[in-house]
Protein: Serine/threonine-protein phosphatase 4 regulatory subunit 3
Organism: Gambusia affinis
Amino acid sequence: MSDTRRRVKVYTLNEDRQWDDRGTGHVSSTFVERLKGISLLVRAESDGSLLLESKISPNTAYQKQQDTLIVWSEADNYDLALSFQEKAGCDEIWEKICQVQGKDPALDITQDPIDESEEDHFEEIPETTHLVELPPCELGRLEEIADLVTSVLSSPIRREKLALALMSEGYIKKLLGLFRVCEDLDNREGLHHLYEIVRGVLFLNKAALFEVMFSDDCIMDVVGCLEYDPALVQPKRHREFLTKTAKFKEVIPITDSELRQKIHQTYRVQYIQDIILPTPSVFEENFLSTLTSFIFFNKVEIVSMLQEDEKFLTEVFAQLTDEATEESKRRELVNFVKEFCAFSQTLQPQNRDAFYKTLANLGILPALEIVMGMDDLQVRAAAIDIFSYLVEFSPSMVREFVMQEPQQTEDDVLLINVVIKQMICDSDPELGGAVQLMGLLRTLIDPENMLASTNKTEKTEFLSFFYKYCMHVLTAPLLANTAHDKNSKDNFQTAQLLALILELLTFCVEHHTYHIKTYIMNKDLLRRVLVLMNSKHTFLALCALRFMRRIIGLKDEYYNRYIIKGNLFEPVINALLDNGTRYNLLNSAIIELFEFIKVEDIKSLIAHIVDNFYKALESIEYVQTFKGLKGRYEQEKDRQSQKLNRYRRDARSMDEDEELWFNDDDDDDDGEAVERRMEEDFSDSYEKFMEAKKGNLLSCECFRHPGNFVLNSRITTWSSSVTAGAANGANGANNGKTGTIPPASPAVTSSNSSSSSVKTVALPATPVVKTALVGLVDYPDDEDEEEEDEEEEEQQQQQSPRKRPRLSS
C-alpha cells in the first residue's frame, strides 16, 4: 500500500466535550512494524514531528462526517478526528480504512460500537439482519415509527442500525413530506408523533443524518416538526422567527455562496440546539455531542473562510474608520467585528493567534481608537467588547501598539487614555462598563503578564510610558474631587468611580515599586486619598484606608517618613473616633492597620503614633492594640537608654594611653578641667534623672535649678554642635527617630569665670557620645511642654465634640 499524504488537522475531544487542536500536518497510511499493522501517521508540517500514530484496528468504529472529517474512538473517553483540507484526501484515507476493515466505502460508518452491556441483546437481533426494518412512511404508521425511534435510544447498537436504515432509504425526506401534509390537514396527533420522531432522530447523534436534516431544503421542515411539542397547548412559532424576525445583514456583500450557506446553516442549527431542544438530562447529555461538534466545525470553517478573504476584511475596516460612513452602517460594522471575534473563541490557541495577528495587520486597534470615542452608546459598547477580546488574548500586542503610537499626538488621543476616559465618563448608574474597563486596564499594567523572555524591556518601557502619559488622566477625578482638603462631590456615582480608581492605584502600589512611589510623593497622593475618609459612603472610606494599608504593608521607610512628615495618621484616627462605639467593617479595618504596625514592630510609626495620638486612643480598651503600641514604645525607649548607659560606662574606663595623652597636654589644661567638670556634673544629673524616672516624677530637679550651671558662650556653642552630631549618629541606630535638641545646652566653667581662660580643645570620640545624652535627658521637659500645649488646646476646643490631636511643634 503506497503512502498518500494529505494536509489535515488533528483534533482530540477533551473532558468538556470540546475539540482541541493538536496541530496541522500530512497524513499517510503505512505498515508500522512495531504496531504490526496498517496505521495512520500524521507528521507536523512545521518540523516533521509525529502528531499521530494510530493503528487501523479491525474492530474500531470509524465515522466519516461532512465529507472532510474522519472521527473514531481509540479508548474510553478518547475521541480523535482528522479534518482534511480537501475532500479527495478524506475519501482516499477513508477507502484505506474500509479496505483494512473489509467494509464498503460507500457507508459513513465502518463498525457497530460494541459495549459489554449490549452482549445480552445479540440474541434479540438476528445475525442476518443488518438494518432495522422500518414501517412504511405513511400517515397511519406515524405512531409505530415514533415508538420504534424512541425504543432504540437506549441501545447503542440499535441506534447505529436505525441510523443506517434511515440513510439508506431516504426516509428523512419522506417523513418531512408527511409533516407538510399533516400541517395542511391540521392533524395535531400526527404532528405530535412527528415531533417525537424528529427529536429521536436528532438524539441518534449521527453526523450523516445531520447533513440531510440541516440542508437548505430540509432544515425549516425540521424546525416546523419541533414546534409541535405535545406538552404545549399551542405550538411555538420558531419558523416565523427565523424567517421574519431574524434577518441576515451583510455589512459588506458576501460573494461566496458556500460561505453564505454555511453562515445560515450554523445560525439555524445553533438556534435548534439552544432554543428549541430541551436542556438534556444527565443521561442525555452525550446524545447531542455530535451536534455540538457539527456547530464547532462550522464556525471554524466560517472564520477560516472570512480570514482568507483579505478583500472582504480590508473593506470592513476601511468603512469602519471612514468619517463619511453613516452611523447606522458603522454600528452594523462594529457588531459584525464583535461577532467575528466571538466566533474566533472556538479556535484553538495557535489558530486564534493567527486570527488576531490578521486583525492587527488590518488595523483593528487604530479603528477601535476612533470608534471608542464616538457618541453612539451601542457602538462604544461593541467596541469595548472587541477590545476585551484583544486584551484577554494578547495584552502584549495591545501594549506594543500603544507604545508605537506617535508621541507628537496629544495625550487624549492615545488608546489607553481613550479607554480611561470611557471608564470615567460611563453613563451607567451602576458603572457596569467602567468596571469592565478597569479590569482591562489592570490586565494591561500587570507586570505578571509582561514576559521578560520575549521582550526584556517591555515592563520598564511600558510602565514609564504609562506613568508619563496616562497616570494623570486616571487620577484627575480623584485630585479634582479632593482639592482644598475636602470631598467636593460625595454622590453615589462619583463615590463608585473613585472606588474603582483607588482599586487600580492600590494594585499599582502592590505591583509597581519605583514608578508609583515617585508619583505618590510628587503629587502628595496619599494625603489627597485620605480626604475620602470623611466620605458618607463607607465603601469609599474603606478603599482609601486599603490604599494606605498597602503602602504601610510594604514596610518601606521612605513611605514611613512621608507619612510621619505629613501627619497622615490624623484623618485615620479621626475616622476611628467619629465611628464611635460602632462595631463595623471600618472599625475593624482601622484597628487591623494599627495591629499590623504593632506586630511588625515598625519603630518609626510606633513612636509617631504614641507621641502624637496616644492620649486620644488610650481610652479604647476593647482591644489591646493601642496599649500594645505603648508597650512597644516603652520597650524601645528602655532599650535605647540601656544602650546609651553602656556607652557611658565604657567611655569612663579610658585606657592608660588616653589618660597619658590628656595629662601630657599642657596646652589644654583649662579645656581638660572643663571636660572633667562636665563629666562629673552630667553623671550626677543623669543619675538623678533616672531615679526620678523610676519614681514616676514628671521632671528632673537638677535641670530645673538655674544655679546649678553657668552658661558660657563658647562652650555652649561647642556643646550644641556636639549634641547635634551625636543626635544625628543616634538617628541611624534608632530607625530614623529624630533626636531632640534642648533649647539651652548645659555647660560648665572653671573657677575662673572669664571666657578667655577656657580653651577649645579637639576632643576624642568618647566625650562626644556622652554629650549626646543631653538631648535625651531633656526629654521630660519636652513632655511638659507638650502637656502644656495640649492643655491650652483643650481649653480652646471645649466647644468641639471631639479632640483632634496634632503633631506638636
